[in-house]
Amino acid sequence: MKKNNLLIGILYMLSGAICLIIALMFDTKLDSLLFGFAGAFIVPGIVIVNKYFYWTSPKNKNRYAERLENENIELHDERKEKLRDKSGRYAYLLGLAVTSFFIVLFSILGNLEVITNYKLIILYLGGYLVFQYIAGVVIFRHLNNKY
User: Fold this and answer.
1) Closest Cα partner for 88 from 126, 132, 130?
2) Which of 34, 89, 104, 136 could link 23 by a cystine bridge, Cβ 3.0 to 4.6 Å?
3) What one-character-per-residue DSSP string does 97-125 give?
4) Separation between Cα atoms, residue 42 and residue 15, nearest integer Å
5) For residue range 86-103, what is the model confidence (pLDDT) as tens digits?
6) Is the pTM of this model over 0.70?
7) Rounded Cα distance, 109 and 115, in Å
8) Pair 42, 49: CB distance under 8 Å
């Protein structure tokens, strides 16, 4: 395992500790958010550091080499790459359909006066829909030119 993983784990723990110290020392409206960030940084940092020491111990070196080889095979398997690409496309199309559905749903609920301020929600969802579509086109064109 790379030393970079150990450094990343330590940086995560330091970031979490900084958030925790700020949350404990200062009384702000962001305390709950800072405590959440502290936990969100400290716990993964501890996990990353423990994994580093576990996999770099001499008794686990062979198992780690075998695991890396299997991961490399899985990552470069053409069938799985194609399936990942297709699943990403289907998720993108599903996201567009769901967003469109919710635009219509919030329009209906707003016109029936079930919810208030529905225009802001519709504008947000419409902007998100346009962003998703444009991002999909731009990424496709970039990949098309690249390959």
Assistant:
1) 132
2) 34
3) HHHHHHHHHHHHHHHTTSSSSHHHHHHHH
4) 8
5) 999 999 999 999 999 999
6) no
7) 6
8) no
